[in-house]
């Protein structure tokens, strides 16, 4: 796909300039409105393959114009969930509702409002780009003039017009991906399903393609549901993320909430990098909780939205970018621990510091390289102090 500059220009030309209208930060949040009906609803959906449970008792609402991401490791059930929505698999239990209609037993070719783009792209090698894009429309027996219009519109949207007469083997991986996307868009589905659509692209092209997908989704107003194992991809493109593990949805929320307010150690550890300290509740007051660290006679203080009881097991999760690292012991002593630097990773704009603290635990801290250092740089084997503010940590109880 083209770079973000071209994508911005196209969005501007189509009247979509400015911030993403379907992004949570834009105020788009139909899941918070009780009067809104979902375009997709999974009701107690379970899928078994023999004795193996691929999806377990899934309940999920997805709303019109959402860019929804199903995120999880291989084998977690996310693709099975997508295939059930497409009609390629039938739930063992439960129902799937699309636009108010029960489609649980409806075959894929009768689910006209849904189209799926596969990871392999499945292009016909003997057909030109425009013939590939119009294939589904010809199969439906659509009028020739309407097919031509839809094909041209779809190819313009993904900026493929000048490649119309080429065949797939004459295109790059990114261009082939756009052909598959244009073919799906040409049918004007209400719901677009994307199964690891960027998996075959290199990192730089993948990053560009993410913003192109966002632009296309905004321009068409189509509900996109993407399956991915790439946390960064899910965080970039989606309005909400459903994190899956062993066939279960363990948290469904916006990217910001998933990152800043994970509901379990699994989610905290799966999304981005995190430091987790095990302890027990030593006291609570005024929305704050003190967690006695099991590895050291140190107490961590942080905010908690839920009531906790003294003696209860709990964990404190802190993102590396929220931890300050320095040579001097913090004056207030709150959430401060001493350690020794064991590794340093210089990544240009930031440096990663890996610090061994009490009990042998390894803690990661980030430091921005915003300017030439005016103090002694931190190096291997240095004794340092780590600290973070009370509102930087998240208390987890599971």
What does this structure look like?
The chain is of the alpha+beta class and 398 residues long. The chain folds into two domains: 4-113 and 189-265, P-loop containing nucleotide triphosphate hydrolases (Rossmann fold, 3-Layer(aba) Sandwich); 273-396, OB fold (Dihydrolipoamide Acetyltransferase, E2P). The protein is built from ten helices and 20 strands. The protein has helices at residues 4-13, 78-86, 129-133, 135-139, 144-157, 173-186, 203-220, 231-237, 255-260, 265-270; strands spanning 40-49, 52-62, 67-71, 93-98, 101-102, 114-117, 191-195, 223-228, 240-245, 248-253, 275-285, 288-293, 299-303, 313-318, 324-326, 336-346, 350-356, 362-368, 383-387, 394-396. It has a six-stranded mixed beta sheet, sandwiched between helices. It has a five-stranded antiparallel beta sheet with strand order 13-12-11-14-20. Strands 15-19-16-17-18 form a five-stranded antiparallel beta sheet, with no helix packed on it. Strand 11 and strand 12 form a beta hairpin. The model is unreliable at 1-18 (pLDDT under 50).
């Amino acid at each position: 796909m083209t770079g973000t500059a071209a994508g911005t220009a196209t969005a501007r030309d189509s009247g979509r300039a400015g911030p993403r209208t379907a992004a949570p930060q834009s105020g788009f949040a139909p899941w918070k409105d009780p009067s809104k009906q979902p375009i997709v609803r999974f009701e107690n959906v379970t899928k078994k393959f023999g004795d193996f449970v691929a999806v377990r008792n899934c309940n999920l609402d997805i709303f019109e114009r959402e860019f929804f991401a199903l995120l999880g490791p291989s084998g977690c059930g996310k693709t099975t969930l997508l295939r059930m929505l497409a009609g390629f698999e039938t739930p063992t239990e439960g129902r799937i509702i699309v636009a108010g209609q029960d489609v649980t037993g409806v075959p894929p070719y009768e689910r006209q409002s849904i189209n799926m783009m596969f990871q392999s792209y499945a292009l016909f090698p003997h057909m030109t780009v425009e013939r590939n894009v119009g294939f589904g429309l010809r199969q439906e027996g659509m009028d020739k003039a309407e097919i031509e219009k839809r094909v041209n519109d779809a190819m313009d949207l993904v900026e493929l017009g000048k490649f119309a007469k080429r065949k797939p083997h004459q295109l790059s991986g990114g261009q082939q991906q756009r052909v598959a996307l244009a073919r799906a868009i040409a049918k004007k589905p209400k719901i677009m399903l994307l199964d690891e659509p960027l998996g075959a692209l290199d990192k730089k092209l993948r990053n560009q393609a993410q913003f192109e997908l966002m632009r296309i989704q905004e321009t068409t107003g189509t509900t996109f549901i993407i399956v991915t194992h790439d946390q960064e991809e899910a965080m970039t493109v989606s309005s909400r993320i459903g994190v899956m593990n062993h066939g279960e949805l363990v948290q469904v929320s916006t990217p910001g909430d998933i990152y800043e307010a994970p509901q379990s150690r699994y989610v905290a550890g799966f999304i981005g990098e995190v430091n987790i300290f095990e302890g027990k509740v030593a006291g609570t007051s005024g929305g704050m909780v003190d967690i006695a660290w099991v590895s050291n006679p140190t107490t961590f203080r942080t905010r908690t939205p839920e009531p906790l009881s003294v003696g209860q097991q709990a964990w404190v999760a802190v993102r590396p970018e929220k931890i300050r690292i320095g040579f001097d012991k913090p004056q207030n002593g709150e959430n401060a621990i001493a350690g020794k630097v064991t590794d340093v990773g210089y990544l240009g704009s930031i440096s990663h510091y890996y610090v061994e603290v009490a009990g042998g635990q390894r803690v990661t801290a980030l430091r921005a390289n915003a300017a030439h250092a005016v103090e002694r740089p931190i190096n291997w084997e240095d004794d340092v102090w780590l600290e973070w503010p009370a509102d930087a940590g998240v208390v987890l109880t599971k």
